[in-house]
Amino acid sequence: MAITSSVAQTPIARKISTNAVIRTVLAQGPISRADIAKFTGLSKQTISDVVRDLETDGWLKPVGKTDGRPGRTAITYELNASAGLAISIDLGGTKIAAAIGDLLGNIIAETKVPTDARGGIHLVDQFQAVVNDLTEMAGVEMAKVRMVVLGTPGVLDPATGHIHVAPNIAGIEDIDLRQLLTDRLGIPAIIENDVNLAAEGERWKGHGVDVGNFAFIALGTGTGMGIIANGSLLRGGRGAAGEISYLPIGGDPFDPGGFHLGTFESAVGSVAMARRYVGFGGQEGASVADLFVAFEKGDHSAIAAVEETARLTALAIAAVGATLDPQLVIMGGSIGARPELVAAIRRYLPRCTPYPTRIEISRFGNRAALIGGMGIAVAHMHEELFGVDLGEA
Amino acid sequence: MAITSSVAQTPIARKISTNAVIRTVLAQGPISRADIAKFTGLSKQTISDVVRDLETDGWLKPVGKTDGRPGRTAITYELNASAGLAISIDLGGTKIAAAIGDLLGNIIAETKVPTDARGGIHLVDQFQAVVNDLTEMAGVEMAKVRMVVLGTPGVLDPATGHIHVAPNIAGIEDIDLRQLLTDRLGIPAIIENDVNLAAEGERWKGHGVDVGNFAFIALGTGTGMGIIANGSLLRGGRGAAGEISYLPIGGDPFDPGGFHLGTFESAVGSVAMARRYVGFGGQEGASVADLFVAFEKGDHSAIAAVEETARLTALAIAAVGATLDPQLVIMGGSIGARPELVAAIRRYLPRCTPYPTRIEISRFGNRAALIGGMGIAVAHMHEELFGVDLGEA
DNA sequence: TTCTATTTGTCCACTGCCTTGACAAATTAA
DNA sequence: TTAATTTGTCAAGGCAGTGGACAAATAGAA
């Protein structure tokens, strides 16, 4: 394990300079070379050289001129957004959503198809087809796509990328989906848990912007949490960080045989919520959707069911608060993003913890994972294209 | 915010090279210049230059010669451990422990004094005296001490370093202890929560070596947890990460007025444990120490008290596991490190969570925070002396 | 003991990257 | 039209790193 690679002469200094220029342009929008020099502290000469190289390689492009100030007009440069493309795919139990975006993360095209129920290798075929559709819709060549991020349910092993538990989707636990996707598309692929991606999405462009510590809690058919701590995603030892299904809340965790499903998920998942509604007097066979309709009409059974779910969720947030101390909890998922539920949680939380966490509803609804995947893909693309690699550091 | 500082000509390349050399020497022990060159990938010439500079500045020193291999003998170099010193201070409610260590983190001298009950500014006087004692004991000059780390109970604001809640120690919530210490000693000071330091200590030289995700749980008068996640300390938004006192476990978190003390701490702290023992039939007025003596003799009340504490702690570990997914939980503190208790926790944990975490007892006992402080101090010293600063990166 | 293979470490020439200062070019304000 | 100001290029110089040549030093073999 060599610490510095240093194949050629002294590429490191130029790489650092290039990286500084790119980051400055990325952060400061259209900017002149003179301003880049002031901002980075590098000399005008160096900046001119670097910008020239970047322009001939197609990464930067001149976009305009300054005016209004005294002195010679300056040519302003911007990142050539179309120089690199990335794809985000959100694999769900019923549908596959996908988007293609440019170097700045602007989404150019988006599509959605039903998930192939046969699962397994057939999904890879679907991904291929979806990617083809996207490049066609966007009118771009596949060669410029440099990164694909796939969000899936389930626990992913951080080391191998192996998907451990994915109840909704058939036959993906035994195949190396990341490798298959990489091979099929010929570009680097990343797999990440969908709730983790939702958290990344909120960090990128949602409520989590500039928040270094927050959690995204998804309540729906199942329960999950994505954690951003110290400004980066927390995966845990086996990739199971945020698997709040197993929180010892909402039932007796020592109940033999019961805890394997997850004490918390057994208490607040959609099945439990519907059953609770029925138990409180709701219509036999009612779904969670029915419950919220009834809630709207002021149905007492529905209100009681929501209240109880909110109470348990508040306890879970209290537990998360005592462990992670997030500045913010973002609620998502088909149930978790319901304003009625969140309002109730906001009422319960200060009653069970002295330092209640701020709670927001996800900004992106069911597109959060897709957005987050794009954020990750763009970040990795930047790293791959412009990143400075000191070996380890 | 300039991205590269670049005061002089091109200091960055030489800094990177120097850093690579130092890290290689640090990791590979006594090593020749030729081997450093092979290891880093840099040329022999560069290594010779860098080593010469480092030697004249006193950071490296030749320690021997190679032999046994064919070819010319090589001079091997080692880090000059005494070139830089660091101090770790552990501020406790009853005593102040402190140690001085060298560039490699070897502890040279250690001391302990009772905490000045007047607290506040008097503590700074004590710190000063303790530091003087240490340098005298170690026979070193204060000028070579480059970093001091202070561990304290309480929640520290990550941004300001302000100590929020420190029940055991008088008058330190209103003063800027870090600034006072820095000014008094004339060297950079860092303040960190003592349980966090204990976790860092285990990571540095204890059970947490090479474990990227683990938690150190301290049970004693109070309860606390230090978290290492993704290989680094997790502080949370307000520095309150790991404040498991507030876990909604071991009582009714909605009990009005009760939760301010912390539901979990109220259930497993030493006061609660002694009261539980008495409640189960133990001697009126018995302490936790008495409890464990009785436990040793097979006293049923004591056994029941330990069992209940273990059961609740297992639940807390289950909650932490569902949130952080640590590979390991290390138990510490006067109660938490008791083997009897840990044995019971190990029995309970698999009964309340499907993926029980491995549990170990702290390797350093009540010196864990002191050791951890030394680890942090040494790491910061290395960073300050040899670190490569790309501005942000 | 002598020779050979091998390894260490230095010397030297060369290249790449960055900086500084000078200066031409272009624009606003007076 | 002129002065002030800013942009961007040119040219010279320095630092850092590389690679090849080579002297020095040693183990092992003849």
The whole-angstrom Rg of chain A is 24 Å
Number of helices of chain A: 12
Structure classification of chain A: alpha/beta
The biggest beta sheet of chain A reads: 5 strands, mixed
Task: State the largest interface.
Answer: A-B, 70 and 70 residues
Oligomer: homodimer
Please list the strands of the largest sheet of chain A in the order they lie side by side: 6-5-4-7-8
User: CATH first level of the largest domain in chain A: which class?
Assistant: Alpha Beta
CATH architecture of the largest domain in chain A: 2-Layer Sandwich
Task: Throw out a few tags for this protein.
393 residues, Nucleotidyltransferase, domain 5, DNA-binding, homodimer, 3 domains, Arc Repressor Mutant, subunit A, DNA-binding transcription factor activity (chains A, B), alpha/beta, 5-stranded mixed sheet, 13 strands, 12 helices
Structure in words:
The structure is a homodimer of 393-residue chains. By secondary structure, chain A is an alpha/beta fold. Chain A folds into 3 domains: 11-79, Orthogonal Bundle (Arc Repressor Mutant, subunit A), CATH 1.10.10; 83-199 and 369-386, Nucleotidyltransferase, domain 5; 209-362, ATPase, nucleotide binding domain (Nucleotidyltransferase, domain 5, 2-Layer Sandwich). The first copy, chain A, has helices at residues 11-28, 33-40, 44-56, 121-138, 177-185, 194-205, 263-268, 270-279, 288-296, 300-324, 339-348, 368-386; strands at residues 31-32, 60-65, 75-79, 85-91, 95-102, 107-114, 145-152, 189-193, 214-219, 223-229, 232-233, 328-332, 358-361. In chain A, the strands form 3 sheets. In chain A, strands 6-5-4-7-8 form a 5-stranded mixed β-sheet, with helices on both faces. A 5-stranded mixed β-sheet of chain A has the order 11-10-9-12-13, with helices on both faces. In chain A, helix 1 (11-28) crosses helix 3 (44-56) and helix 10 crosses helix 11. The model of chain A is unreliable at 1-9 (pLDDT under 50). Chains A and B meet through helix 1, strand 10 and helix 10 of A and helix 1, strand 10 and helix 10 of B.
